[in-house]
Amino acid sequence: MQPAELNMSTTVIGHQLFLFVSMGDRGVDGELAQDLELLGKGMENMHDADGPPTDEAFEGGRYQLLRAEPELTTEQQIAHPAISGSHGLIRLECASLEPIKRYETGLRALIESRGGSVETLAGVQRLRSYTSHAMVQFAYAHALPPGPGEKYPLAAVTPLNKTAAWWEMDFMHRESFFLPRYDENENMVVKGHTLASAAGVPSINRRLVHAPEGYGLDGNYDFVGYFEFAEADAPVFRQVMEALRDTEQNPEWKYVLEGPEWWGRRVRSAESFLAQ
Q1: Residues near 58 by Cβ (< 8 Å), separated by ≥ 6?
Q2: Side-chain half-sphere CA neighbours of 63 within 13 A
Q3: Is the dihedral of CA 211, 215, 221, 224 positive or negative?
Q4: Can you tell me the distance from the alpha carbon of 129 to that of 223, in angstroms, rounded to the nearest whole number?
Q5: Which of the chain's ends, N or C, has fewer CB atoms near its CB within 10 Å?
Q6: Are strands 62-68 and 44-45 parallel, antiparallel or unpaired?
Q7: Are strands 12-22 and 262-267 parallel, antiparallel or unpaired?
Q8: For each of the chain's 276 residues, which pLDDT tens digit applies?
Q9: What is the largest CA-CA distance in the chain?
């Protein structure tokens, strides 16, 4: 289904690629780190960036290298070994798709020539579709801004699909899942998505991208969530995910099928990214 059919925003304000890298049997040779550094030449390394990107950086493209933390990654309903078993992730973002697609093509050539593989998740950034002004103030006005990798070294990726029943709902029905629900005596009986995840607002930088071709399509994820946070706030992230998965307090999750919850550690250099 297309956003316009769902009363969701159709405006694309950016592109992201999640490139999950699996190294082959031939492993890493001495030239690979140098070649990876050259791929990112002219792009901003988000590991050192503090705050939102400048227009110039976003136009030119940005990248972040993340080394997998396999002991923290967990499988969910949708098995996806190319993600859960990957060596690392390179996340790219740009105002237009072409610069980061060139990076993907170059990376794929480097890794596949050494017997490895690259699994790509693509997403577009859209204007928010479920937010009133009041909700923006609650959920975003005081949200944690992006920060450098030294400050927020951990990251998690959560690809997911909504079920066919979700997309068949009237848009007002869908939006109702984001708010708390009350009984006839005005007692809150269900938190809803917003309150279930509220603990993460001040301590987890979060970004969400949408499927470029539309929602509910085979072989695709409807959404990919990306989160960065400090070591000390890893328990907060786990708390938020546990609360979202509690269908008694967040009935929305009855309509969610998750891919792997992938964890990684942000690193500055290709050498660190390739370290075993």
Answers
A1: 14, 93, 94, 95
A2: 25
A3: positive
A4: 13
A5: C
A6: parallel
A7: unpaired
A8: 887 887 788 889 999 999 999 998 776 777 999 999 999 999 999 999 999 999 999 999 999 999 999 999 999 999 999 999 999 999 999 999 999 999 999 999 999 999 999 999 999 998 876 666 777 777 777 889 999 999 999 999 999 999 999 999 998 999 999 999 999 999 999 999 999 999 999 999 999 999 999 999 998 999 999 999 999 999 999 999 999 999 999 999 999 999 999 999 999 999 999 986
A9: 68
**Rounded-to-integer distance, Cα 241 and Cα 147, Å:** 22
> Residue 26: which domain range?
3-274
Residue by residue, DSSP assigns 87-128 as SEEEEEEESSSHHHHHHHHHHHHHHHTTT-EEEEEEEEEE--
Residues counted in the chain: 276
Question: What's the total number of domains in the chain?
Answer: 1
For 204, residues 6+ apart whose C-beta sits below 8 A from its C-beta are 144, 227, 228, 229, 233, 236, 237, 240
Find where tokens 């493209």 sit: 61
Query: Is-contact 91 226, C-beta < 8 A?
Result: yes
Show the tokens assigned to 102.
């060139």
HSE on the CB side for 147, CA within 13 Å? 16
Using CA atoms, how far apart are residues 100 and 67, in angstroms rounded to an integer? 19
